[in-house]
Amino acid sequence: VAIVGTGNVGTTFAYALMMSGLANQIPLIGRSPEKVRAHVMDLNHGMMFVPPTQIFEGDYSDCEDADLVVVTAGKPQNPGETRLDLAEKNTEVFRKLIPEIAKHNPRNLLIVANPVDVLTYAALKFSGMTMNRVIGSGTVLDTARFRYLLSSNCAVSSRNVHAYILGEHGDSEVPVWSNVQIGGVPLPQYCSACQRQCDEGEMTEVFDQVKNAAYEIIQGKGSTYYAIGLALVDITATILRNENNILTVSTLVDGFYDIHDVCLSIPALVNKKGIFRTINLELEKSEIDQLRSSAENLKGVIRKLGLE
User: Fold this and answer.
1) Strands 174-175 and 165-166
2) Tell me, what's the pLDDT at 83?
3) Model pTM?
4) Going along the chain, which residue ranges are E strands?
5) Is 169 considered catalytic here?
6) Alpha-carbon separation of residue 84 from 67, 114, 151, 185 (angstroms)
7) Which DSSP state fits 212?
8) Among 104, 162, 169, 260, the one annotated catalytic
9) 83 Cβ partners below 8 Å, 6+ apart?
């Protein structure tokens, strides 16, 4: 697994990946040789405490036939900025970066840098790789936040919560309330038997916390990296172990509820081939409308950047 980008997200992912034992080689590729060397040294000094792997300073040639290349490189999101504010400057970064990676023919490419949906679309254009092999981390983290907050609100383990956030990884993301289940029980049915008797305002607050989580974290400590690092390990495991896991990753959508030619998050079955197929989830009309609006929002940015 090659990691391109050695900022907070890339190095936290490297640390979590090292502990997972999933990869036998982890080249780190970054702009600053001194910084990359320091990260490699620091990680390798803990090698006796983790499953054996090789972590080393890499370059683009180390993407050759990699099972997965994870791209975290890009300008960071500053306090007060939205993910879409980053679109223009990070598209220019990708214009040079992605062809360098793609010419070494990695098996799969995972885009993490923001705005992840726009950059996943850009990576498809700049790489020439097939759509199933270019994946965005999408709303995997948003979905995890949603499940965690629902579990806290309902006082159950997050493992018993099944719920999705779809659309943009950002302000127009869509909570799929119609498909939320607690222990296999639809949410309205579960709520009617629960002693807490939550009102609609509490559910709205749950989603507001999901949508605004990154802004709050960035305001408090500058960037988010722990949870996304773990989310990336989960996506990596799904690919390397051929797990056929259903994840809300960002992928090129062409026909899902009449949405075309845009990358956003919908449920997709992921395995060693990347996106194996997407899942036709039954949505309510209001959710379909929100998802289409999210798609139009992203397509507007793609048009402005001249990526169509």
Assistant:
1) antiparallel
2) 67
3) 0.94
4) 2-4, 25-29, 54-57, 69-71, 109-111, 134-136, 161-162, 165-166, 174-175, 181-182, 185-186, 245-247, 250-256, 259-265, 268-271, 274-278
5) yes
6) 29, 8, 30, 36
7) H
8) 169
9) 77, 114, 115, 116, 169, 170, 171, 214
